[in-house]
Structures are given as structure tokens and as C-alpha cells.
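Researcher: Let's do a round of design. I'm pasting the C-alpha cells now; please hold your answer until I've finished.
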């Protein structure tokens, strides 16, 4: 294999194998080829990206962890452990579990700043508005409305250390809880930069 490619043959086959599993599972559950292809593409892209970052690191002892989660349990645990900052996007009308929302509100209670980017289409949904009102009561909560097209996935960055990537499956609310959870500062830094790029596209901060 070309030495410039960041993954070995076995690494590549592993990532493609996981992508194939993602395609099969999503296709069987959603009966949507588009959703299945989207899931496979996302898994492949971020699998290659994350593994390449790890292999390129001059410090191999640097922590790199990947968890595939099918509920909000892992995300809630990470929220409770967050001490510095939370960056989060919300691009669908599906709402997270009450437990997840309560965990994020508890971080605001402890003074942890939360910045959320909401797509303009979602911001107009009545149920989303009601849900967001609970967060808008806090002075350390900031919210921006993204104009134009939003990415086909959602993500959260916690303490610039953890990244939760939600797969782009919108036809079943339960599947939005299928997530890739990464623990790696360099990857978190990349998503932080992506978040800032999206935030700069927001014309105004929501009330």
C-alpha cells in the first residue's frame, strides 16, 4: 500500500467492514437505501479521519477511544463529567431524551457554558421552541440559528476532548441515538473548528 495513505491494509479493511455493517443494519431497520448509504459514508469518513489522526500522532500513548452507542447512556455519562464547555448542534425536530436534557441542564446549573447551533428550519418548530426555552433561562447558555443548509449529521464537543457524532438517520427518532463517541483531543479540535465555521454562518444570536 502507498506509504502516504494513513491506514494499513488491515486498518482499511476494518473501517470498510464497519461501514458495511452500518449500511446493512440501517437498511434493514429504515428500509431506506439513502439513509443506509449516508450512514456508511459517515462511518467510513470519520473512521478513516480518526484512525489517521491516531496513527499520525507522535505520542502513541495519547488517548484515543471510540464507542458505538445505541442509546443516550454514554452521552449522559460524558455530560456529567464535563467541566469546561459544551458545543452542540441540533438540526432535526427530534428531541433528545429527558435524561439527556436534564444532564445538560445540570451542567448549566454548575456554570458550564453551553453553545448550541440550531438550523433555521428546526428553530421554527413549536416543540423545539418549547424545549429550548428551558435552556434559554440560563445566562451561560448561547444559541445561534444557522442559515442555509445544515450538515447531514449532528455533533457535540465536550471539554474539547470528547466528540459525539450522531448518524444522519431522520426517519426514526430512536435511531438518532445511534452515535459514534470519540475521545481524542486532536479530533475534538477539528470538530471545534467545524463548529466555529458553522457559528460564523449564523446571522444573529437567538433570544
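Researcher: That's everything. Go ahead.
Model: Designed sequence:
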Amino acid at each position: 500500500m502507498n506509504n502516504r495513505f494513513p491506514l494499513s491494509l488491515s486498518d482499511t479493511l476494518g473501517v470498510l467492514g464497519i461501514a458495511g455493517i452500518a449500511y446493512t443494519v440501517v437498511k434493514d431497520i429504515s428500509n431506506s437505501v439513502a439513509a443506509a448509504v449516508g450512514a456508511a459514508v459517515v462511518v467510513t469518513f470519520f473512521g478513516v479521519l480518526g484512525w489517521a489522526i491516531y496513527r499520525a500522532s507522535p505520542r502513541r500513548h495519547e488517548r484515543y477511544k471510540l464507542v458505538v452507542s445505541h442509546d443516550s447512556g454514554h452521552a449522559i455519562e460524558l455530560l456529567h463529567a464535563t467541566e469546561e464547555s459544551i458545543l452542540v448542534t441540533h438540526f432535526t425536530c427530534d428531541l433528545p431524551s429527558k435524561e439527556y436534557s436534564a444532564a445538560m441542564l445540570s451542567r448549566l446549573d454548575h456554570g458550564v457554558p453551553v453553545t448550541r447551533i440550531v438550523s433555521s428550519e428546526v428553530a421554527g418548530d413549536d416543540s423545539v421552541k418549547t424545549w429550548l426555552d428551558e435552556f434559554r433561562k440560563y445566562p451561560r447558555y448561547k444559541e445561534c440559528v444557522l442559515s442555509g443548509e445544515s450538515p447531514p449529521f449532528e455533533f457535540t464537543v465536550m471539554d474539547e476532548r470528547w466528540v459525539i457524532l450522531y448518524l444522519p438517520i431522520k426517519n426514526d427518532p430512536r435511531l438518532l441515538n445511534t452515535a459514534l463517541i470519540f475521545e481524542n483531543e486532536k479530533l475534538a479540535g477539528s470538530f471545534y473548528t467545524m463548529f466555529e465555521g458553522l457559528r460564523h454562518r449564523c446571522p444573529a444570536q437567538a433570544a
